[in-house]
Specification:
about 190 residues, mainly alpha, about 85% helix
Length: about 190
């Protein structure tokens, strides 16, 4: 009996299935299909953004390392070089000249040429002229010293960078051996 009852329900179930198929066919699924397509596109975009994010994280790490190297190594090294160069300038040049002439000229050239390399490239003739003038002055000084040593039979180093030995000789002569100039007598009428 249960079998007979189930046999009667099969055609009813088939009719229900047929009606559901017709109802399903009548439903407009274009909006759902569009949403599915849009979801697939969004999933692709999310995967692309995740890949970009991973790339940016890697780039951030590289840039972070570069920043660390700049802060901890390059900048301190350059600061040391600047300090060394400033000491060299202070030793080679008179501070008054640096402040009143050399530094001002350098700043003016730097403002128009943008870098020290550009200044260097722009002034080879001036550099050569300055070197020649320096060499000529040095050569003249050495000659004067040699003449002094020959004339007064002295053994001072004619190529010494400083003039200390000659300055000391001048002080000794001026304090001890040079005559004091006579004082002019006042004229009274």
């Amino acid at each position: 009996m249960a079998y007979a009852k189930e046999k009667q329900t099969i055609p009813e179930l088939e009719q229900d299935i047929s009606r559901l198929r017709i109802s399903l066919a009548a439903i407009d699924t274009s909006a759902i299909d569009a949403l599915k397509t849009h979801l697939n596109q969004l999933d692709g975009a999310i995967r692309g953004l995740e890949a970009d994010l991973r790339a940016k994280d890697t780039e951030k790490g590289v840039l972070g390392e570069r920043l660390r190297v700049c802060q901890e190594e390059t900048i301190p090294k350059l600061n040391d070089e600047i300090q060394t160069l400033q000491q060299v300038i202070a030793q080679k040049y008179d501070s008054v000249w640096v402040e009143s002439t050399g530094g001002l000229r350098y700043q003016r050239e730097l403002s128009t040429r943008q870098s020290a390399e550009d200044i260097y490239r722009a002034f080879p003739r001036e550099l050569s002229r300055s070197k020649n003038a320096k060499e000529s002055s040095w050569s003249n000084l050495v000659e004067y010293r040699q003449d002094y040593n020959r004339k007064y039979i002295m053994g001072y180093d004619t190529r010494a960078e400083d003039n200390d030995a000659y300055d000391d000789a001048w002080l000794e002569l001026s304090e001890n051996k040079l005559p004091v100039p006579p004082r002019p007598t006042p004229f009274y009428s």
